[in-house]
Amino acid sequence: MSRTEAQNPFQYQTPESIKTDDALSIFVDVFKDFYHVINNGNTFIHGPRGSGKSMMFRIMKSDCQIKKLGIGLSELPFYAIHIPVKDTSLRITDIDKLEKNYGAIYLNEHFMVLYFSICLFDTLAKEDFSRYDTAKHEAIEFYKNVLLKRFKLAGWSEYLHERSDFTSANQVFEEARNICAEMQSAFTRNFIVKISLNPTVITYEGPLCLYSDFLLPIVKEIRMFTFIPSSPLYFMVDDADELNLTQTQILNSWVSFRSTSDICYKVSTQLKYKTFFASTGSKIDAPHDFYEIDLTEAYTSDHKEKYNRNVKAIIEKRLDVMGGLKITAENYFPEDEKQAKEIASLKSTLIKQQKESGKEDKAAYDYAYRYATSEYIKILEKTGEGHGHNYSYAGFTSLVHLSSNIIRNFLDLASKMYVSTYNNITEPVEFIPVNIQNAQIEEYSSWFLESNFERIISDQRLDKQQLTHHKKLYNLIDSLGQAFSRFFKSDLSERRMFSFYFEDEPSNEVECVLKIGVSTGYFHRSSKSNKTGTGRAKLYVINRMLAPLYRLDPVSFSGYLFLKADKLELAMNNQKEFLKYIEDRIGKGNKEQDDSQLKLDLN
Amino acid sequence: MNDKSRYIKITDLPETLPGDVDYFITSASYENRCLLVANEVNNLHPKNVIVCCNMNHHWYNGKNLEYLKILFGDSFSLLELNSKLPSQNNDTLLVKIISIAESNPEHIVIDITTFTHETLLILFRLLYTLLPVRTKVSFIYLEASDYSWNIDNIEEKWLSKGIGEIRSIIGYPGIFNPSRNTHLIILVGFESDRTIKLIERYDSTIVSLGLGIKSTPNPNNQSIMDIARKKHELLVNQFPHVKVFNFCLETPFDTKESIAKQIALYPDTNIVIAAMNNKISTIGAGMLAINNFEIQLCYVMAYQYNTEYYSKPSADCCIFDLVRSV
């Protein structure tokens, strides 16, 4: 492919806007890892922005499923409706005034039902029913006997003009969509905009479409169509964190209906879902009401290989389809060969030294594997440009780890590398040079942290009352990064750490800061067994994109830093004292470490 | 420049404003710009002074709030707001504006310079909707001569960092028909980071980035214009799919027209506008949205604001009047 013909293979596209063939050509089947997403039943899928949730939903839509499986619409295993919840599509600030007032639930539900109904009818309106001779007749009967009745029952009869001129099933669904859109517009014009002009709550006298007497009965009837799969409809609610609290409770109520024979909810969140309580006051739980998947947790620990394998497949597909290159991901993102040879040579030296000191072969190899990189960085600090600045993070494996189980992080970084390479050469881009990889990694890693925070002067005494949660988050990240760096350059037997855990109950403020850290992608939350083996402790893994900032090795972390909750507070509020504590602890051989937890990772 | 707005020196303000001032409304901010218009208007002895202040940021607004309290003495009254509670702010402002309207004022002067974009748009809508038609409302905006003034390098200048909550502005809910594409329109200012994250968060198929322009070159803030242009270019390079258009920074009436033209290029879309440049253009966005309820105005909160070095005031201010369509 010539330079002008080739596209940037890593350029981000909104999943909703990707055409069928393009979506299928770049998609790697992750459903075998997450089969609950496509199987019947309600599923919550949690993961930060860029972890692939929307892309999964894109592939589940009928156009992709029909092409992928080579079958007709009515034979599909499910019929999926994408319901995107953007930041401000349903969570309208005006509606907040209704909170805790009589009618808040009904009015929010009406608003949601109209939104979901528009998505449903729009999806149907865009289908190809040409293979189904009875589609038009069935749709018209549905319109006359079900739809009009439901609109009238909801109180919309005044504006209804019964049509009889439909020439296709698609037109019927377009009409249904348009009626719902008119109701949505009327609700906004006649009620929502007036809320903020009245000091007290205003009365609502318009139509009301609720789940149990509008949406659910309509779905039941739609399922009877012969041209629609007989399996339940999947409502794919994308970014459900963006619902307000009442709307979240309403959605939970719908999930709790257990009407999975008619509708299965596939709900994606960015780990900020507000509550699992329903508007009825009861709580929905896994696995009784839904199955739950955390995309990042699924790819941590023992399942890392799945993520590595999927990223490799995704990259190689994109390079082939969009870049016209048949090349392995490893060759496209080569590592620094000189550094690799030097580390290999250092490993050999360490193995020899260990054997000479009486260690068995396996122990000697294990030692070399665990410590070669940290020893190498220590050497670079002494002999290189200082502070390990010339340690290279280039290479596909390293990039995969830096992306921290979020595919979009990898694609974003790779896209920048591609553009930089393209601008530096006159030939087509056939691989990304090591120096460009390193430059972009440094820049991206720095931007990743600094774009959200102002750098706090490290020796400044921090005033607790003046600090916002976000400044405390910055302090925490920076304190931990420097702590892990000190461990990594120490002579301790366990020096490779990138996560911390605690067992005691943290303060509300610590909880809040950690929650922000998770939702902004700086931490991944997981759990591990506690010291006594009687339960689980909360484990937080730092985003590996921060590794270059603190000169850490992003590959294969096996240690966890145990911290009491008060030390987390110290890390947030007084970095100097926290690092002093860490240095003392290193000096004492990390005595507060949980000795029962180490797991050897031989990647 | 439109004859509905004019630029004068701040020191000429007292002579320019006609007649008595029944109400002067302003915002106490960490920016010292909030004091200069107040100083001049004080020479007109306004009968009532309403100072809005986000009390949740009192620790950095408090000093200027205290100054204004002393400056206006007995005519001073405080309207406590909270930047995290827009619904409550709306109600607080609503009650106040209703009470002002009932007193049938002749002339209200508002310093819009240091209000947050969100509070300004809420206030604008209430004034537009509730005040008697005969009430003259004069808006004043004091220009800045520099932003992030402790840093010379254009690319390092910052006004805010990070992106917190994105929310629709109360009173401008818009209509989000999920069967339509969304057209995100950003009146780009200084804050590239917030703009980038807004584009990424909305993931819209159509994004229009507006570049603020001035028809009258002003050597006092040419550097600011150059900075803004440079930042706009960087954004367009980063997002090659975006559409670009120009909008006026000197008169809200022209801003309104520019945005309307851009909207007309992509009909049948959900429209979301984020006004992130000066307050004059923000009012322009408000003027358009107030009569088109399908347009949503959104507000982007930042994690941090450059409270110490945000801006330096210039000597120039813009005055324009509230014009209500029949």
For this entry, what is the oligomeric state of its chains? heterodimer
Radius of gyration of chain A: 28 Å
- Fraction in beta strands of chain B: 25-35%
Q: Categorize the overall geometry of chain A.
A: globular
Distance between the termini of chain B: 24 Å
As a whole number of angstroms, the C-alpha radius of gyration of chain B is 19 Å
Could you report the average pLDDT of chain A, rounded to the nearest whole number?
Answer: 87
Main β sheet profile of chain B: 7 strands, mixed
What is the tally of beta strands of chain B? 15
Encode the helix/strand succession of chain B as letters. EHEHEHEHEHEEEEHEHEHEHEEE
Q: Which strand order spans the largest sheet of chain A, edge to edge or round the barrel?
A: 2-3-4-1-5
Strands across the major sheet of chain B, in which order? 1-15-6-5-2-3-4
Q: How many alpha or pi helices of chain A?
A: 21
Mean pLDDT of chain B: 90
Head-to-tail CA distance between termini of chain A: 36 Å
Blueprint (SSEs and pairs):
The complex is a heterodimer of chains A (603) and B (326).
Chain A: H1 20-26, H2 35-38, E1 43-46, H3 53-60, H4 62-69, E2 79-84, H5 104-125, H6 135-154, H7 169-195, H8 211-222, E3 233-238, H9 245-256, E4 263-269, E5 291-294, H10 295-298, H11 304-321, H12 329-332, H13 337-356, H14 361-383, H15 396-402, H16 407-424, H17 434-450, H18 469-488, E6 497-502, H19 508-519, E7 523-529, E8 536-542, E9 559-562, H20 565-573, H21 575-587
Parallel strand pairs in A: 1-4, 1-5, 2-3, 3-4, 6-9
Antiparallel strand pairs in A: 6-8, 7-8
Chain B: E1 5-9, H1 13-16, E2 23-27, H2 33-42, E3 48-54, H3 58-72, E4 76-81, H4 86-102, E5 107-111, H5 117-130, E6 136-147, E7 160-161, E8 166-173, E9 182-187, H6 192-202, E10 206-213, H7 222-238, E11 243-248, H8 252-264, E12 270-275, H9 279-290, E13 295-300, E14 304-305, E15 311-321
Parallel strand pairs in B: 2-3, 2-5, 3-4, 5-6, 9-10, 9-12, 10-11, 12-13
Antiparallel strand pairs in B: 1-15, 6-15, 7-14, 8-13
Helix pairs in contact in B: 2-3, 4-5, 5-9, 8-9
